[in-house]
Structure prediction request, 290 residues.
Amino acid sequence: MKAGQRSRTADGAAALRASHTLYAKEPLFSDPYALALTSSGWQKIIRHPLLHRFTLPRRLNPVGLLIGQVVGRARFAEDQLELAIKHGVKQFVLVGAGLDSFVLRKGHDFPELQVFEVDHPDTQAGKKSQLAKLGDIPNNVEFVPINFEQESIAHALNRSTYQRDQIGFFSWLGTTHYLEPQTTLNTLKAIAEYAAAGSEVVFDYSIPYQRLKGFERLGSYALSHFTDSMSEPLIGQFIPEILHQTLDLMGFEVLEDLSGSEQDARYFQQRTDYVRATAATHLIHIRLRA
Prediction:
């Protein structure tokens, strides 16, 4: 993203969540604040009686895959979070929070959960003012600025009230694709060294497009050019087997790593609106060993 600007891909993701919430017959993930959080340009498109059709999933069109990627990862992360809360987790870290609206949607539902939004200060500044207009920001939310390319998440959390001797749940969505792979690994290593044993992390990651076939490969190639035009190129990719080995050395155990077909089986199998998971992205859930 460009300095002084909030992330354009975060705007795009919010727009897709908004479109899915407004127009899907049975939303997999409902986000009533997404439309207000996205840019004015996206708002005009989504509200327009004709232009909004470009944000709807259609046969042989990549929009359904993009929506599936955005709402699928959000649903997966919050499913795992709610299980963690039932097991006593009281710290939730949104890494690269973007325009996620959890604090408004569910912040008041879990008053004992301390929420830490960790993100680039440019994205964070605009978001905080928007959130304040949309509702009461719960007292259990803390905003922690960071530049992932220049600073460790451990250093950032040290400036907050995060209790490193207590188990935490980290959600890191829609970000690793735009970071150098080593930056992603450095962040995960910092979490492993900083967080308490038993802490969990959910994140999504891209696999090399050379591993894809047919329409999926073409869609991944087209998406990379689209994000590059917004000055947010897709530069972060991992081979699952190698990533798992690296995570193991860091002290993580892999609880789940869902491929596109596994995401489809869990979340999209019964859908008739062409919203599907993309084979280009995996969803992974890991936990720090004791």
In short: The first strand starts at residue 91 and ends at 95. The mean pLDDT is 89. DSSP finds eleven helices and seven strands in the chain.
